[in-house]
Write the structure tokens for this entry.
Amino acid sequence: MLNYDTSRLLNREEFFHCLNECVAQHQMDKGQIALVLIDINRFNRINTLFGFKMGDDLLFNVGQRLLSLKRNKDILAQIGNDEFVLLMPGIQGEAHALLAVNKIINIMRSEVRLNEIPVAVDIVQGASLYPALAANAETLLQGAGIALREAKADGVSHRFFSEKASSPGLDWDVESELEYAIKNRNFELYYQPQVDIKTRLPYGAEALIRWKHLDHGAVPVDKFITAAEVTGQIMPMTEWIINAAMRQASEWPTRFGEQTVSINLSPRVLHEPDLADYIESAINIWGINADRLVLEVTESGIMENPERTSEMLHHLQSLGASISIDDFGTGYSSLAYFKTLPANELKIDRAFITNLKTSAEDQNLVSAVIALSKGFKLDVVAEGIEDMDTLLLLSEMGCDLAQGYYLSKPMTNADYQQWLEDYDQDNYWK
Ligand code: C2E
Ligand code: MG
Ligand code: MG
């Protein structure tokens, strides 16, 4: 197949060539293909706790083990930092693919010793089949990705894609109503405050979108964001969000100085050529200082296409806006990578904050992230703070900004302005 030496680990680009080629070939001869995504659970912890060298050694070891069990005609590639993919042409069906999945589970059972430290590799797999579960190369990969996310969410070792699982889980057609909702401005922005831990004063707020459907009530955010991404409506929706957030932020009380406003950007819109122009004109129209604007991009979103994203982030930063890496700790990257990225802020994912008081492992991780961020001159935000003890702990650890239900749940623009007016630090630091 193609001109690649498939006995070695291919890279992402080589893999996509092979995938397309392979599907085209099987379309002609009516064969079956399995695609298995293999992801290392919580790989980031290894990087953060033991260092990047050890993280790299571990990835190399995993790659070698996977290579040792693939058939000659299989293709193995590393497509993300800690994500591998096995493409199996000419298989006989799901049972056949399951054999490979089980072989992978077995070969990963033994611990690796890195610098004399035994490290267990916990992997998760998501698989799909062409043509039984997917019509083309793109949906084959997508299906395996969905299966992988579900396996992770359910805490199981592997899962095959199934049509049922891919339905949005709603009994009405979100996608077709989205367009109507965007045109008719049926959305609202809620704001969740962030407080500066050192001064104990309000610092800014994150805009979080809400859709209250006339018949169906509140629609879960992740459901309709995903639907907007899939149907190509995410850009018009994002334009609405950017405009509404800046308009509202331009009217916020300045009792504690000008507050920042953080806007979440889907990785899909980062490739829209008009994004930066749109943001620039909104800044001008609403006359807000560009340095009040924080643009949040998730770590995993950046890692989908690091080079292109980096270019866009540079552009956005040149407008005067800050870039924040959202949900940090859940993606594929190592902190060292962020040295090369134009970022100003890092938001530690809620998953690491929820059990901070009781989990020594999370404490180590959060301390390490804060220490490294200081080296890269990044501000650190902790999201998901739900009680005072966690806030105090983060304060001791040197975290810069706090966000979470303990300070306030996301609220309407009017309530947020009232919250600012009423703010009294003694309510939170008791
Ligand atoms: P995110 O950007 O990480 O936003 C933080 C989420 O954590 C919000 O959920 C917020 O309500 C929730 N949260 C904040 N503090 C706490 C806490 O103390 N405890 C708990 N349990 N949860 C807390 P929400 O609003 O449901 O948003 C979920 C995700 O949807 C967001 O995660 C973001 O990725 C996405 N999203 C929300 N609004 C937008 C938007 O306007 N545009 C885009 N592209 N994505 C958005
Ligand atoms: Mg966010
Ligand atoms: Mg987040």
